[in-house]
From TrEMBL:
Residues annotated as domain NAD(P)-binding: 8-302
SUPFAM superfamilies (UniProt xref): NAD(P)-binding Rossmann-fold domains
Record keyword Transmembrane helix present: no
Names of the cofactor(s): NADP(+)
InterPro entries, per database record: GDP_Man_deHydtase, NAD(P)-bd_dom, NAD(P)-bd_dom_sf
One Pfam family of this chain: GDP_Man_Dehyd
Name by which UniProt lists this protein: GDP-mannose 4,6-dehydratase
Coiled coil: none
Length: 321
């Protein structure tokens, strides 16, 4: 009996990792997910990752990561692990580079070794639209840009490797530290009388926001394409944070949202790109992929889940996906 192919997913407890792992399991693959030490028994794993073999590995330990790849011998590798905050990258530039670049270098080395041993590996790298935004000089963006060069070099050396420049994508399981979830959660808390106001920074940045569940389908299509390809992934439509506030509060049933918003200058990050918007045509042409969830529908679903979270006190539940 032929064993199922194996996929290795770094960052498996993150938003994209969860949706991707579930997609790969549905495809019949054995899925091994890499998680931070101490996190495998957490509520997110229990709620969202049944059937995934979660291995706790410090991805900054290159030897341990390469040993894991050799042990698992995957046919597909998806590198989604990252320190994804531009602001935090200025505070921890060395750690940002270690996680966002050196981890990929280790994975490529391990993939080359398996391929040379007659066990070919395909690799997908999650890059970021920030590499071409106004924050392109941030430690975060520089590490992601350098990682793109690593992918290109690996491909020139015969590895099936590709990267996607990801525009912002959200979901109900996005951690609340991200501003989109901060706003949907804040609207829910105010609607239910658990809070009176929501504190935010700048509201004039514009982003191309899509649904993460759709984006992981593009990851799989890119990796399984006969020839590797690098693509931007986004909806092609941008909205401002002010738009997000108004749509989220309306979805929660809260009138006059601006009477509930407090702006804190200390939360304004001047390094942020003002506008990030994808060209959706390359992905449509190369892999037949377009984002289909509208901004309004994404916001409404996230507010719906956050209302349930506030009412129930249950943060992680498979019904939230």
């Amino acid at each position: 009996m032929t064993s199922a192919p194996t996929a290795l997913v770094t960052g498996v407890t993150g938003q994209d990792g969860i949706y991707l792992a579930r997609r790969l399991l549905a495809d019949g693959l054995r899925v091994v997910g890499v998680a931070r030490p101490g996190s495998a028994s957490g509520p997110r794993v229990a709620a969202y990752l049944p059937g995934v073999e979660v291995r706790e590995v410090d991805i900054t330990d290159g030897a341990a990561l390469r040993a894991l790849v050799a042990d698992v011998a995957p046919q597909e590798v998806y590198n989604l692990a990252a320190l994804s905050s531009v602001g935090r990258s200025w505070e921890e530039p060395e750690l940002t580079r270690r996680v966002n670049l050196d981890t990929l270098v280790d994975l490529v080395e391990a993939a080359h070794a398996l391929t040379a041993a007659g066990r070919p590996v395909r690799l997908f790298q999650a890059s970021s639209a920030e590499v071409v935004g106004q924050a392109a000089d941030s430690p975060y963006a520089r590490a992601k840009a350098d990682a793109e060069r690593v992918v290109e070099k690996a491909r020139a050396q015969g590895l099936h490797a590709s990267y996607a420049r990801l525009y912002v994508h959200e979901s109900p399981i996005r951690p609340p530290g991200f501003v989109f979830r901060k706003i949907t959660r804040g609207a829910a808390a105010i609607a239910l009388g658990r809070s009176d106001e929501l504190t935010l920074g700048t509201l004039d940045v514009r982003r191309d926001w899509g649904h993460a569940a759709e984006y992981v389908d593009a990851f799989v299509r890119m990796l399984r394409r006969d020839e590797p390809v690098d693509l931007p992934l986004g909806t092609g439509i941008d909205h401002s944070l002010a738009d997000l506030v108004e749509v989220a509060f309306a979805a929660a049933g809260v009138e006059d949202p601006w009477s509930r918003i407090v702006q804190d200058p200390d939360l304004v990050r001047p390094a942020d790109s003002k506008v990030l918007r994808a060209d959706p045509e390359p992905a449509a042409e190369a892999i037949g992929w377009r984002a289909t969830t509208s901004f309004a529908d994404l916001v409404a679903r996230m507010v719906e889940v956050d209302l349930e979270r506030v009412r129930s006190g249950v943060e992680d539940d498979p019904r939230y996906l």
